[in-house]
Amino acid sequence: MMVAIPVKQPGEQPAFRAAIVAAKDLLTLALLEQDGETHLASLHAAVSSCVPLTHLSAIYCNGNEIQVQEQPQLSDPLPFTPCNPQGKNQIEQLSSTAGWCWVRVEHGSLHWLVARTQPAQRTLLLHLLEIAATHFSLLQANRQLDLFNSPLLNRIPFWQEKLESFTRLLRLAGTLPAQQLLAQFDSTLRFWMGAQEVLLLQRQDDAGRLIYPQSATAGEALLNLLCDDRPQQSEDNCLHWYSFPILLRRQHHASLALALQRPLVTEDRQLLFFVAEELGLMTELYELRQHKKESSEQAELAPEEIHRLRELGKNNLRLQKQLKQRDEQERQLQLDAQRDPLTQLANRAMFLHRLDHAFKHYQRYPDQGFAILLIDLLSLHEVNELYGDELGDLLLKNIAQLLHTSTRQNDLVARLSGDEFIVFLDASQSTEAITPVISRILEQLQHPVMIDNHEINIHAALGVATINAEIDDVSQLLRQVDIATFQAKRRGADHAVFYSELCDIPDRLSPEQTLQQALREKRLLPYFQPILRLRDRRVVQIELLARLLDEEGEIHEAGSFIPLAEQSDLILEIDRMMLRHACGLLQGLFRPLIKQHSLRISINLSGKHLGSREQIQQLLQIIHESDVPPKLFIFEFKERDLTRRDTQTLTLLHELRAKGIGIAVDDFGTGFSSLNALFHYPVDFVKIDDSFTHRLLKSNRDRALIRAIRDISHDLGMQVIVEGVEQREQQLKLSEMGFDLAQGDFFSAAMPPDALFSLLPNRAVPPETKKD
User: Using CB atoms within 10 A of its CB, is residue 128 exposed (0-12), middle (13-18) or buried (19+)?
Assistant: First the structure.
């Protein structure tokens, strides 16, 4: 570790200032040689070269234990034995007129430096001790800093071990003989790099001379090629040869060469550049130490030596600056290699690395899936043409921030190309987990962006592909998300498409046309999931969930078509169809429940119904025509639909409640104005989003949040329903936390009406239907 040592310039005669400069340089080199550790002998050698000493000691304190280390062979002992950890009172009793000096030090257990010289030299000695104390304090402040802070530490296997191995060798450079140090480098390079030969070359008389080892298999022509002031590489006898220049005072001094059976990867090449640069720095430090050793043997310094030491001090500062610059450059290079320079998002390389790692993890743990979401901007080209590339770049930065705030903590947003972004959705294999992210992104894209007084509308096409057991490699998953995005673009702006095998069929109906056809053919079916009271597993509500039956007879969950329907008016027709199904069941299969009036059906509705009184009246007309009591229904609206706080929405919700219909806030906790929705609107039920449930057992923060939601809701007279319960442990924790109502696959998956009816007579979920 190298630090600059501040020095006071007293301003007396030139000889005094020269001694200060010389002592500073000698002291710096002595302390560097000890790698920041206090060494009384080195300190004595540095100080006594300018000031005659009769005493030098260091006082250490470890708790209540006090230790005094005195430099031997000096005439004056310390005139007292320290009796307390600070020792200040005893030290200050020393006579300064007799040449005693002392300074307080903050360096680990070292507390005081004490020295004595001739009274006439006391001022100079005091300055030197202050230099040493300052140096030790700086070292103490920095000794815990890591030498390296590279992103490669978490990305490349064994990278940290490699760095530590070479760093340990570099720190031995001042203590080992040259040949022994080179032998250590040889064995380290063979172990970590798989090197077959390691050479150190130096150019003499325009030829490469072998410094280490004594002989090599490489011929003279190859040695001449490798010993160059630029990096070189060549192939000879099935070996890959590489050389890296070692610079001394910015001039080519030597070359480090090695032979491998395989080509060097980029990370190892970068590490070897670092090693070569450090060898150059160590060589310069070695010369400085040698000069210190020679000059310290002289009783007095000649003027030319003082000038030389000043130059060495400047070189020392230059070396420190170079080391800092090298560290910063290495960190910046690693960041640049993984980040998009415009948006500072992850780039393609970093995204592919994350994707590859996740795919390998999925192969070992198939229950921990993921998905990728591709966003293709459709309006960037027009923006660049109308307003110029500079404003287009500002738009890209704005969209990058939008995507970052719309995704979750463990997701990764990356920029693939000029107008394409891609998102790695962690722990998101089901459409229910993916849909909230897509909805947030599409909702944000609906709002124009103001850039340089220009209002810009953003349009994009979104494609989604999820991992499954049939995918053999990540390229297949990337192809699927490309196909899904292409199909989204065919439908126009601001559409999202989930990949399915139907996407690969040419000339097929568009997804919107397919959904319209399913509506006409009544292939949208009602499924029901019970909502239970936790203390006795009694069913108190049932939630109606739409399912799509495709032409092949496969059932698709709502997440695969509801986002598409939300982007058009199809969602309104789907909601009305589901309400008619519910009314029909209450008139037929569920008719016995009408007399009870205690079991209610909860129906998910789009916030578009709140856009006009006409839409609400159509819903009420369906209920009226079926002759079903309105109080059997609960209308669920997404939290984001209740963030506008407009008068019309408030009025319509009050009218629904006046009819006896309950109001529920669905996916609570995922929007932007959660508490405002609770305080402002007439709400009966709060449904906590399943993302909180998934993190319930691991996150203290999420447990605290849902406790707060529970308490606020109860204080406002609302009931709380926890969604997404999938494990027994989650059920037990929720019961322990005092929650009353819950739903999820642990109790019962969504099922068709006939299957649900078997649960309703006793209105309790039998234990055998639960999933462990």
Answer: buried
Q: How many CB atoms lie within 10 A of CB 499?
A: 23
Residues contacting residue 20 through CB under 8 Å, at least 6 positions apart: 7, 8, 9, 10, 50, 124, 127, 128
Indicate the residue type of 379. Answer: S
| 307-349 residue pLDDT tens | 777 777 777 777 777 777 776 766 666 666 678 888 888 888 8
- Distance CA(582)–CA(565), nearest Å, equals 20
- Non-local (6+) Cβ contacts of 392 within 8 A are 380, 383, 384
Token pair for 502 = 């139907």
* Strands of 178-222, DSSP E: 195-204, 207-212
Distance CA 664, CA 347 (A): 41
H/E segment holding residue 21: helix 14-33
How would you label 555-583 residue by residue, b for 16+ Cβ within 10 Å and e otherwise? ebbbbbbbbbbbbeebbbebbbbbbebbb
* Long-range pairs of 150-153 with CB within 8 A, sequence gap ≥ 24: 150/330, 150/331, 150/334, 151/334, 151/335, 151/338, 152/267, 152/334
Instruction: Give the H/E segment covering residue 574.
Output: helix 570-587
pLDDT at 144: 37
Contact by Cβ (8 Å): 196, 259: yes
Q: How far is CA 695 from CA 435, 707, 729, in A?
A: 18, 14, 12
- How does pLDDT run across 109-147, given as a tens digit for each residue? 788 889 999 888 887 788 778 777 766 665 554 443 333
Q: Distance (Å, rounded) from C-alpha 375 to C-alpha 440?
A: 13
- Please tell me whether residue 771 adopts helix, strand or coil conformation: coil
Kindly report the three-state secondary structure assignment for every residue of 356-387: HHHHHHHHHCCCCCEEEEEEEECCHHHHHHHH
- pLDDT average, residue stretch 485-493: 80
What CA–CA distance (Å, rounded) separates 316 from 292? 13
Side-chain-side CA neighbours of 54 within 13 Å: the count stands at 15
Is the CB of residue 407 less than 8 Å from the CB of residue 434? no
- Any idea which of 26-30, 92-96, 451-455, 721-725 has the lowest mean pLDDT? 26-30
- Return the amino acid letter for 353: H
More confident residue, 205 or 687: 687
Average pLDDT of the chain, as a whole number: 78
Which H or E element spans position 400?
helix 389-406
* Burial of 111 from C-beta contacts in 10 A (0-12 / 13-18 / 19+): buried
- 689 token code pair: 């989003």
Q: For the chain, first and last CA: distance in Å?
A: 58
Please give the structure tokens belonging to residue 172. Answer: 């031995």
CA 716 to chain CA centroid, Å, is: 39
Nearest to 429 by CA among 382, 394, 454, 465: 465
- Looking only at the bridges linking them, the beta strands covering 454-456 and 600-604 are unpaired
Residue 128 dihedral angles phi and psi, to the nearest 5°? -65, -40
| Bond prior to 526 in cis (omega within 30° of 0) | no
Structure tokens at 629: 């009591």
Tell me the two tokens of residue 44: 């004595």
Closest CA to 262 of 247, 276, 242, 279: 242
Nearest to 91 by CA among 71, 111, 118: 111
pLDDT digits (tens, 9 = 90+) for 687-698: 988 878 888 888
pLDDT tens track for 474-486:
888 998 998 888 8
Predicted model pTM: 0.41
Q: Report phi then psi at 328, rounded to 5.
A: -65, -40
